[in-house]
Structure formats: C-alpha cells, structure tokens
C-alpha cells in the first residue's frame, strides 16, 4: 500500500497526541499536517504544523489544506460544565466547518472523527453531549467524503512518552486494560485503525471498540 498524507487535529490533547505518535512511527504514513491553536511540541521529518487561532476562521478554500488523503479529527472537549449552545459550537459547528474546508481541497478524502462510546445517533436522547456528538456524526456522513468514519472508543491507553495526559488520569491507566479489556483500547490501536481505514475501508461508518480493534490488525 502507498503511504498516505494526513491532516490531524488535536495534537495537544491526549487522543490526538497518541494518534500523532502512531502516525509518526507508521511506515504507511508519509506526511502529517498538524492543524492546531498551539504547537504540538514535537519535531519529525514527517511533521508539518499549521497554527490557527480559531478553526471557524479558516478559509474554506485554504490551500494549506490541499494535497492530503485523509483527516484524523481528534480535537475535542469535555461537556462538563458547558451549556448545550457552547458545546455545540465547539463540537458540532467547528468540526463540520473544518470538514468542509478539507473536503473542498481534497474531494477524495477520508475523514476519521473521534466521537465517543454511547453517542446518540438519534440526536434525541437525554444526554446533551451524546446528542451533539450524534448530530456531528450524522452531518459528517452527509458531506460527501469518500469515507467518513466515526470512531467510538472507550478507555484509551496513552502511547508511551506522551506528555499531554491529565495528571489525575495517570494513576488509573493500568486498571482498565487489565480489568476491562473489552472496553479498552490503546492509542496505537486507534491510530492504526485510522490508517488502515483509509487504505482498506470498513463495512460500517460507526466504529465501536470491537471494530476499532479489528481494523487495527
């Protein structure tokens, strides 16, 4: 398989950093453009960085986003303490706008979106975050990407050497893979599944934990 060029968001968060590290190591990725508000703190021959203060200000015809095979959208935020309006702006509006921008420049692109376990595809459940994530998933599927995959991981073990891991998370990292292996993934697996999805596709657009594990092989 030919190595791919990818755009990645969220490199300064735990999920994005872990996926980025897998992509830097993986021979099936030749180039990564990290789009972020802040530098990732990493240097590598494969890595380029494009710093933007606000994704909603990106020009929909931005040529910096041209020439890529896939986008791995790993940026996200917790809904704790947020109103539905504010969470929608960050989670739905920003993601869909950015997706339109990269699709404009790359009509044959694959878009991988990190959603969440128990996301609500009906958009009508009681949990606010799950409704908004479901709405985002549904919108991405309609945009016209070659493939749009919605990743719904559970617990994700960081890649060794990651620096963007919350302090309160570190003491319990070992617990989930040991006691709840069916609900756990490593960020190596998430990254590999994203890469393999670009090359091989997958029968469903929504990938639960078992699907991510299968696609990572």
TrEMBL record:
InterPro entries: Epimerase_deHydtase (IPR001509), NAD(P)-bd_dom_sf (IPR036291). It is found in: Membrane. Gene3D superfamilies: NAD(P)-binding Rossmann-like Domain (3.40.50.720). Residues 6-108 form the NAD-dependent epimerase/dehydratase domain. It comes from the Bacteria. This is NAD-dependent epimerase/dehydratase family protein.
């Amino acid at each position: 398989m030919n190595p791919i060029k990818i755009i990645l968001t969220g490199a300064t968060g735990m999920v994005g950093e872990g996926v980025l590290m897998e992509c830097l190591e993986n021979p099936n990725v030749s180039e990564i453009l990290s789009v972020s508000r802040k530098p990732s703190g990493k240097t590598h021959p494969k890595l380029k960085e494009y710093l933007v203060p606000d994704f909603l200000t990106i020009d929909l015809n931005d040529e910096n986003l041209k020439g890529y095979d896939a986008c791995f959208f790993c940026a996200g935020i917790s809904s704790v303490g947020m109103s539905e309006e504010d969470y929608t702006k960050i989670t739905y509006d920003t993601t869909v706008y950015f997706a339109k921008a990269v699709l404009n420049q790359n009509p044959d692109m694959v878009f991988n979106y990190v959603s969440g376990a128990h996301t609500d595809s009906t958009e009508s459940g009681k949990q606010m975050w799950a409704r908004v994530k479901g709405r985002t998933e549904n919108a991405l599927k309609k945009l016209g990407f070659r493939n749009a995959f919605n990743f719904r991981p559970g617990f994700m073990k960081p890649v060794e050497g990651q620096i963007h891991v919350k302090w309160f998370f570190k003491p319990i990292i070992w617990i989930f893979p040991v006691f709840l292996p069916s609900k756990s993934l490593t960020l190596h697996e998430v990254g590999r599944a994203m890469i393999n999805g670009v090359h091989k596709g997958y029968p469903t657009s929504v990938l639960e934990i078992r699907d991510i594990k299968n696609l990572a092989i």
